Amino acid sequence: MEFSLTIIMSFISMMAYSQTDYPYGANSHEQDDVPVGQVTQHSWKSSIYPGTERDYYVYIPAQYDASVPAALMIFQDGHAYVKKDDDFRVPVVFDNLIHQRRMPVTIGLFINPGHDMDADPPESPWRVTNRSVEYDEVSAHYAEFLLHEIIPEIRRSLNISDDPKMRAICGMSSGGICSFTAAWYYPDQFHKVLSHIGSFTDIRGGHNYPSMIRKFDKKEIRVFLQDGSNDLNNKFGNWWWLANLQMDSALKFKEYDYKFVGGDGEHNGKHGGAILPESLIWLWSDVIEAK
């Protein structure tokens, strides 16, 4: 009897921590009748983050017309978002939603964090030297890097809108809080934020955002948050899930234009990738409905 009870309790425990299987919908798969955008790869040596170099990718939709200003969406940890066969598949989703006119004609900028040029090559793009410095710091510094270096560079060859409502910024984990920080300090430049498993944690002060949101004047930004109840629980605390719940509460209290979607996933892009089409449709709906 005791042995059977142990098995039953173990099974209940396993069920409690099991994760939902998040399937992909049609908009995350290539469609035969949908025009395909072009992706190019580049590198950049920064002066704002001196001594660092990074890769970045630019997606140009098939519908892009140089005579018409296009929307812009920037993805941190761009290597994770630009792949067509990984969790997010952004170029595929963009192709489908732009074709359906459920989001505007949008340039995609997929940018990696910087790496010290004097250091050994990183084991992976996740292990570059400057990631936490750029992403976790609660300051305007990274946004200024985007505004004064990277965006002007791509605007040399692309017609990008100055309207903040035509600009969105996205990231996962530390890239998620980084995206929120850019909009927090420059709401006149980045109106839309998409955060996947955002690290609103006590790494470089990000755990202060819920109280900051409550205390400071409301920013003119639109925010979509995604996280899972089995997100990280480590030396920084059980902050990922709990912090996103606190962000949800603070944004609601301050009456922000926002949406929070919770699941039971871990610290990965499976849930966020599966709901990316719906996330983007909601994020851009104010622009589409205004036309």
Protein described:
- The chain has ten helices and nine strands.
- Mean pLDDT is 93; it is low at 1-17.
- Helix 8 (239-253) links the parallel strand 8 (222-228) and strand 9 (257-263).
- With 291 residues, the chain is α/β, with parallel strands linked by helices.
- Strands 1, 2, 3, 4, 5, 6, 7, 8 and 9 form a nine-stranded mixed beta sheet that branches.
- It has a single domain (35-290), classed as Rossmann fold (3-Layer(aba) Sandwich), CATH 3.40.50.1820.
- The termini are far apart.
Quick overview:
With 291 residues, the protein is α/β, with parallel strands linked by helices. Helices cover 36% and strands 19% of the residues. A hairpin with a 6-residue loop joins strand 1 (38-45) and strand 2.
